[in-house]
UniProtKB/TrEMBL annotation:
This is Small ribosomal subunit protein uS17c. The gene is rps17. It holds the Pfam family Ribosomal_S17. The keyword Zinc does not apply. SUPFAM superfamilies: Nucleic acid-binding proteins. It comes from Phaeocystis globosa.
Length: 82
C-alpha cells in the first residue's frame, strides 16, 4: 500500500493527542479555468505533543485511530515563530 503524505499548517492544538492541520491545494476550475485554492482540515494524531499552532508539518495516512483521525504527524518541517 502506498502511504499518502500531505503538507499543511497546524491551526489548532487544543485537544489531547490531536492536532487540526489545514492542507491547501491549488486546482484549475473546470469551467472558468481559474486557479482556485481549496483548503481541507484533517484531524491528525500527535502523541508526543511536538507540534504547536502555526507549525508546518508533514502528515501521513495511517490505520484509523478514532472516528475522525486517520492521519498522523510524520515530521515537523518548520516551527512557528511564536
Amino acid at each position: 500500500m502506498v502511504v499518502k503524505e500531505k503538507i499543511g499548517i497546524v491551526v489548532s492544538d487544543k485537544m489531547v493527542d490531536t492536532r487540526i492541520v489545514a492542507v491547501s491545494d491549488r486546482i484549475v476550475h473546470k469551467r472558468y479555468k481559474k486557479v482556485v485554492t481549496r483548503t481541507k482540515r484533517y484531524a491528525v494524531h500527535d502523541s508526543e505533543f511536538n507540534s504547536k499552532a502555526g507549525d508546518k508539518v508533514r502528515i501521513k495516512q495511517t490505520v484509523p485511530i478514532s472516528k475522525t483521525k486517520t492521519w498522523a504527524v510524520s515530521s515537523i518541517l518548520r516551527k512557528s515563530s511564536t
